[in-house]
Amino acid sequence: MSAKLGPKVALAAGMAAVAMTAAACGSSSGGSSSGSSSSSASTNAGVNTSVDLGAANAASGTPIVFGVLNLQSGPVTFPEVLQAEQAAVKYVNAYKGGIGGHPIKLVTCATDGTPATSARCANQIADQKPVAILGGADTGAPGAIPVWQRLDLAYIGGVPFTPVEQNYKNAVIFSSVSTSDNAAASVYAAKKLGVKKAAVIYTSDTQGTATGEGVIIPTMKNAGITSVTKVGLSPTASDVSSAVASAMGASPDLIYVDAPAACPNILSSLKQLGYKGKLMGVDPCTSPKAIKGANGGADGLIFASPTLDPTAGTDETNLMLTVLKKYAPDTALDSLASIGFQSVMNLQSVLGKSAPADLTTDKILAAFRTGSAMANFMGHDYTCDGKQLAGATAVCNTYEQMREVKGSNIAVAAKDFFTAGSYYKPTS
């Protein structure tokens, strides 16, 4: 997919932080929810992006139930994913006739990132008899997937944080984070930026090490970067100076930051110590809060996102902004929110004409797996053939948009979507 892109416009509003009870279940036909987020919240206030939603085509009758688990409690949460999904459901129920004329109903359960809580949530969702699971953002997914597998439920879309959902036999996932974004950025560094020597600062916990040592570093080497210095940073470290000194001491062409919580301190320290080379990092390094905390150190940082910038000015991005403004104006406009919105729009696009009786697991999966280059809302076309990402059979699309921090704003670094392709090879 190619699209006419534009610079990201700063969007502002506060998100109310609300304490969520772990494993608190609920349901909605697209109702809003709130919670603390790892990204700054935004609305499209003052940005002329509104589109006409068209004539109402309200769904009615018996609702079609989908289950959603989303990380809402703990030090890092992603309420924007659920908020975007609920807003999209409200839109398709009011204007696109839901599925087969019936309203979509989301039954939700708030997780805390632990597999045990996600397993409890999954069993509670199972009691609601969903036809399928709509993917959310849940690092505890390894606890839930066995429940979905036991019930033989399809799993559609969402933010794939772990290999478990990325390889669930009944899953179709439209956008990839953790793997495809870091892999694409690594290849972009080698092939487009001409980097030959790099240093990678990554959080030395399980997930950070898996990404840093299992995705970024080997992909860089496969793409032609001849020297890569790895710098692990404890997730509890309050002082990043040693890690920054180690990275700079290698005299790299590029420093890649894969330490979301420590990003502002790392970037600020790099600037203070006079680093003049290229910068790359992960999406959380580019939130308004992180950019501000970096004290100018984030300027020039390039990162990868699986969806178009929300203010790209395309019909699809403008539709998302209009729907969020109408139904969930305090939603954080980050890549994860876009993936949540995308998941609902793709679900309705493919299943919208299905009768309730046809929503069996086999027929749902066949609808997404038949054909190739299927339209992906705000993203690159997807093909669910199990071959798009090595070691992740459920991922249907590995293409990313490259963006760059420019002052306090975000610009598109490259118009066309980019993928690591065969340069990414799983390490195990």
Description:
- This protein is α/β, with parallel strands linked by helices and 428 residues long.
- The chain folds into two domains: 25-176 and 308-397, Rossmann fold, CATH 3.40.50.2300; 180-305 and 403-423, 3-Layer(aba) Sandwich (Rossmann fold).
- It is 32% helix and 15% strand.
- The chain is built from twelve helices and 13 strands.
- The strands form three sheets. It has a six-stranded mixed β-sheet, with helices on both faces. The chain has a four-stranded parallel β-sheet with strand order 8-7-9-10, with helices on both faces.
- Helix 1 runs parallel beside helix 11 (335-351).
- The longest helix has 18 residues, at 206-223.
- It starts with 24 loop residues before the first strand and ends in a 16-residue tail after the last strand.
Work out the radius of gyration. Answer: 21 Å
How many domains in all? 2
Task: Give the N-to-C terminal Cα separation.
Answer: 31 Å
Poorly predicted ranges: 1-25, 30-41
Strand order of the largest sheet: 1-3-2-4-5-6
The number of E-state strands comes to: 13
Order of helices and strands: EEHEHEHEHEHEHEHEHEHEHHHEE
- What's the CATH first level of the largest domain? Alpha Beta
Helix content: 25-40%
Task: Give the helix/strand class.
Answer: alpha/beta
Tell me about the largest β-sheet.
Answer: 6 strands, mixed
Which fold does the CATH topology of the largest domain refer to?
Answer: Rossmann fold
Return the average pLDDT rounded to an integer. 89
> What is the level-2 CATH architecture name of the largest domain?
3-Layer(aba) Sandwich
Beta-strand proportion: 5-15%
Instruction: Please give the count of helices.
Output: 12
Identify the CATH homologous superfamily of the largest domain: Response regulator
Shape: globular
